[in-house]
Write a structure and sequence with these properties.
Structural class: alpha/beta
Distance between the termini: 37 Å
Number of strands: 18
Number of helices: 21
Strand content: 5-15%
Largest sheet: 8 strands, parallel, barrel
Bound molecules: 4-O-methyl-beta-D-glucopyranuronic acid
Low-confidence stretches: none
Helix content: 25-40%
Radius of gyration: 26 Å
Number of domains: 3
CATH architecture of the largest domain: Alpha-Beta Barrel
Length: about 700
């Protein structure tokens, strides 16, 4: 039975006879120069994948160092570019531009003999290249005339696990934590290796193992030894391990009186702790820190700045090559304060004050992983600071693991947003890649992206079979932020389900529309943060708790709805480049999908839809529900094209999603109607 455990690493037999025979001719043998744990991982994957796809185990041979290319037989060659014979097949530019993690794949021939070269400067490049070759086969492409140059545009491509040491996962909807702390370090489960394979197949090279709402226990010797075992298991796959660091650790673990980042005893404590960490975990990546945010301790407790805190930790890590990822997610629920402005207000003045091994990790929007927000104005406002993006792969605000929401569209939307930092065309992708100042040497660029993982112990890892696509898409966008959501969805569908275009084409379309569908039935037209306050599941525009009121996020009243973030309101627009501030200040030039983010709009006012605000709002909610019904129909017509297990499971999930889309629609429409006091448009009378 197909249970989804193999993710996109399914190596189904190639049924097309011609293609299968071509692959058999090309891949009957594999040659390497030298073994290493990473090369062995690549070989294992290739042998297994090729055997499953073409029914033949390739034989493995080794080539003596320094030898010329031997054209006796067809074969696949995995080789580092320090072999002169291999290097000679490529230009200097090609060899240089792939850097430390990229690879080159090329079909070369002499007379009738054909060889496929996978070449790289490093072992990890060869592993990444091997996964690329397998992907070509999984998606049924010809290997006849390959000429591929691939390299990652961002250095740190990281999954953040919000995993607690007791096995629960904050905002995790796919079971429990993968890390079995009780049986570590002795037991290395196969699942850890499969996790590493999946990540390596998409170029993810880092994992923060524990929750940003951190427990200091993860920094104790006992847990460092366990973490070291995981780090060692992941190493052949190019994955570094990171830990979150609770700012109060010197007090809690070190029994110091303070955690003040400028206190010499505190500085010493972190230096010693870091030394201990590297003793156990020589390839440790560094710390991720949530400080002075949502009750977490931080430098603010001692009247110090974020820069004081981050730099102190960064100095301790520096001698070992470690880094600090310092989050910008900070806010206070002060009455009348616009939460969207707070991160920028706190961090913008610190631009240029962070050490060179610190990155600021900012969420894509200024509030919190909402279905749609304006982009976070910190991107484009911190030219002298390494900025990394934080996406959320787990669907905290997108119907958990029940709703089908392909996030590739969301990743693409934000990465392509124009910040205007250096005039038009300064996309967030460019800001992240630090291509804004082209004079910066490549090697000085500390760049990165993080995604909050949606992975757990569920048999299919992610809960929803389509949740796997979001993990996959995150990796692909991390590798290249200018990737296309469309082609990523296509690759993923082919690898995960089938190459049948009768399935791939309609379901790709369904995936690409799915995020907007969820926006329509949850938070259309720029609404945000109106979900149930406690669970973040289902509607809750009425939620009200001491110190927190959903009305601060939607501002519905007898006049209209939406937040005025222009100069007459909170003036959040002023945090953007002047060209954008002007655009967002004017309702007519504000993108329709963000009008309620930036403006308070009268119920009877006509908006760009051609209808009044009220009627438009209601129509979006109704449209969202109809769209889910259409998704169900499309899915039903796929019966027989894929395995029954996953077909039936997704059928059930879509049915539930349809019910819940109605719940959102009815809850929100009826709630807002109390303010609008207007009837529903005539075509929106469907009950229940
Ligand atoms: O999205 C919110 C979540 C919290 C989370 C916080 C954060 C880990 O509701 O559960 O805490 O953001 O990103 O720090």
């Amino acid at each position: 039975a197909e249970n989804g455990y193999n993710l996109w690493l399914r190596y189904l037999p190639i049924e097309n006879v011609q293609l299968r025979q071509a692959y058999q001719r090309q891949l009957s043998s594999i040659a390497i120069y030298k073994h290493s744990p990473t090369i062995d991982a690549a070989l294992k994957e290739l042998i297994n994948g090729i055997n499953q796809m073409i029914g033949k185990v390739p034989n493995i041979s080794s080539i003596p160092g320094g030898a010329a290319i031997n054209f006796k037989t067809n074969r696949l060659v995995l080789a580092k570019l320090d072999q002169p014979a291999i290097a000679a097949q490529f230009s200097t530019v090609e060899r240089r531009q792939i850097g430390q993690e990229g690879y080159l794949i090329k079909t070369i021939r002499q007379n009738r003999v054909q060889q496929i070269l996978i070449a790289a400067n490093t072992d990890i490049g060869l592993l990444y290249g091997s996964f690329h070759l397998l992907k070509l086969m999984q998606t049924h492409q010809s290997l006849q005339a390959l000429n591929i140059q691939q390299w990652p545009r961002l250095k740190l491509r990281i999954l953040d696990h919000w995993d607690n040491l007791n096995g629960t996962v904050e905002r995790g909807y796919a079971g429990y934590s993968l890390w079995n702390w009780q049986t570590l370090p002795g037991i290395i489960q196969k699942r850890y290796i499969d996790y590493a394979r999946a990540n390596a197949s998409i170029g993810i090279n880092g994992a923060v193992l524990n929750n940003v709402n951190a427990s200091v226990k993860s920094l104790t010797r006992e847990y460092l030894i366990k973490t070291a075992a995981l780090a060692k298991a992941f190493k052949p796959y190019g994955i570094k391990v990171y830990l979150t660091a609770k700012f109060s650790a010197p007090k809690e673990l070190g029994h110091l009186k303070t955690a003040d980042p400028l206190d010499p005893a505190v500085i010493k404590w972190w230096q010693d702790k870091v030394k201990e960490i590297y003793h156990y975990i020589p390839n440790f990546g560094g710390f991720l820190v949530k400080a002075s945010s949502e009750g977490q301790p931080g430098p603010g407790d001692y009247g110090r700045t974020h820069a004081d805190g981050a730099n102190m930790m960064a100095a301790a890590l520096k001698p070992y090559g470690g880094i600090v990822m310092w989050r910008t997610f900070v806010y206070e629920n002060k009455k009348g304060a616009d939460r969207a402005k707070q991160g920028y207000e706190e961090f913008k003045p610190l631009d240029g004050k962070f050490a060179d091994n610190v990155l600021l990790q900012a969420k894509y929007g200024p509030i919190d992983f909402q279905p749609r927000e304006a982009f976070n104005p910190l991107f484009g406002a911190m030219p002298h600071t390494h900025m990394m993006m934080e996406f959320q792969i787990t669907q905290e605000y997108f119907g958990f693991a029940t709703h089908l929401v392909y996030l590739g569209s969301l990743f693409q939307e934000y990465l392509r947003k124009d910040t205007y930092q250096k005039g038009p065309g300064t996309t967030i992708a460019k800001v992240l890649e630090e291509r804004v100042n082209p004079e910066t040497a490549d090697s000085n660029r500390l760049t990165g992206i993080a995604g909050v993982a949606n992975i757990g112990t569920d048999v299919n890892w992610c809960g929803h079979p389509f949740g796997q696509a979001n993990w996959y898409a995150f990796g692909r966008f991390a590798w290249n932020p200018m990737s296309s959501a469309d082609s990523i969805a296509e690759d993923w569908l082919k690898m995960t389900f089938t190459n049948d275009p009768g399935f791939v084409n309609p379901i790709k379309k369904l995936m690409l529309g799915s995020r907007e569908v969820a926006v329509n039935y949850m938070t259309p037209l720029g609404l945000s943060h109106i979900m149930n306050f406690a669970t973040h599941y289902g509607p809750g525009p009425w939620s009200k708790f001491p110190g927190w009121d959903a009305r601060d996020y939607h501002h519905a009243d007898s006049v209209g709805i939406g937040l005025d973030r222009t100069a007459t309101g909170s003036d959040a627009v002023s945090q953007y480049a002047p060209a954008l501030a002007a655009k967002y200040s004017n309702l007519k030039t504000t993108p329709l999908n963000l009008i309620l983010w930036f403006h308070h709009i009268g119920w009877d006012q006509k908006i760009a839809t051609g209808e009044t605000m009220w009627n438009s709002l209601v129509h979006y909610y109704y449209k969202g529900v109809k769209q889910v019904a259409a998704m169900q129909q499309i899915w039903q017509s796929m019966k027989g094209k894929i395995d029954e297990d996953r077909f039936n499971y997704v059928t059930q999930l879509l049915k539930q999603q349809h019910l819940e889309a109605k719940w959102w629609r009815n809850g929100c429409v009826l709630y807002f109607q109390q303010y609008s006091k207007r009837p529903l448009p005539k075509d929106c009378k469907e009950p229940g």
